[in-house]
Amino acid sequence: MCGITPYDSGHMGHAFTFSIFDVLVRFLEAGGVRVKYVQNVTDIDDPLFERARRDGIDWRELADRETQVHIRDMTVLGWRRPDVMPRVSGEIKRIVSAASKLHSSGFAYRSDALYFDASKYRGYGRLSHRTRRSMLRKLRDEGLLGKVGPDAKRDALDFPLWRPSAPEEPAWPSKFGEGRPGWHIECSVMAMHYLGEQIDIHGGGRDLQFSHHESERAQSESLTGKKPFARAWMHTGMVRYEGRKMSKSLGNLVKVSQALQRAPAAAVRLYLVSHRYGRDWDFGWQGLARSARLVEQMRKFLADDERAGKRKTPPGRALMDEFNAALADDLDTPRAVRAMRAALRQRDAAALRGMKEILMGSAALS
Which CATH superfamily is domain 12-240 in? Predict the structure, then answer.
């Protein structure tokens, strides 16, 4: 999955996405599926460099610091750490090689940068279900439209594979001149290197569906000639706070560290996974408090059960069937949480422990 751009410590929107994917991985592994989980770190990107310049810090130091914050936050929230967390800065040679292949195959052209020719890929826009007009509008809204002209890109939908670096930005040698990768090619190369030319599940926040994943799909399938690049795409909804999407640019972030000051880690994690992964939702402190009360009831019951030293019994079949059916139904975590509540009501400690491990991982109950 697409991981962080490490220029600010993680907020609840990030934590939602990574917690949902953690539930998916744990559920698959609990069912006997062998999972190789790759989550990249985009340490070569405009927002990172802009923040480094603003704060007067070396971009590598900023990326290292914020990556550690991300790992710390998600470890507290009980994730199963990805098997591989590659950084773009460590994959440059492979990225240059991929860009070169796209160029030599006729899928890319040179002007002021090396661009992928979106017109060469039939179906550009189908993943995100967008018309050309809709795609252009989103690129314009995000400041990614760029310039079309003789010394620029041929079409507004084309995107850079390799570009010159601005002053004070890192640069690497290539046949296209010194520079750095475009955003989309970074993830294609890392995904294919660590998982193969075709992967089972790919995803991230829904804001990445276009243009990032749309472009990643196009260039990956153009590189290999194999379709589909990803057999399934999974995109999480946006988390709002005070009526607006939670984002760094709007300054309305609720950080994981702030939530942990008000509730145990397991409560924060439970609150996150109580929402359907594909839907937008509003973060609220009252909702977090309700999850904290449920977690406290679970903690007391499981502690009492442990102290009583009762003979271990298998979890109730009906409870586990309902829980597993919920997660097998497009990862319906709210329904799975209701099954966990039922296990608590029925005083089924074995079922409760098994469900907690999947929904809340190793997050502490107190």
Answer: HUPs (3.40.50.620)
CB 73 within 8 A of CB 15: yes
Tokens representing 265 are: 């880690």
CA distance 269 to 361: 9
As a whole number of Å, the CA-based R_g of the chain is: 22
Tell me the C-alpha to C-alpha distance, in Å, between residue 106 and each of 71, 229, 365: 40, 19, 56
The segments of the chain whose pLDDT lies below 70 read: 248-249
- pTM for the predicted model, two decimal places: 0.95
Please tell me the predicted confidence (pLDDT) of residue 243: 85
Give the pLDDT confidence score for residue 242 in this predicted structure. Answer: 86
Write out the E strands in the chain.
Answer: 108-110, 114-116, 159-163, 180-181, 199-205, 230-236, 239-241, 244-245, 281-282
pLDDT number for residue 197: 98
Cis peptide upstream of residue 264 (ω within 30 degrees of 0)? no
- Name the residue ranges covered by the structural domains of the chain: 12-240, 262-277+284-360
C-alpha pair distances (Å), 337 with each of 79, 162, 163, 212, 342 = 17, 45, 47, 32, 9
Cβ neighbours around 220 below 10 Å, total: 26
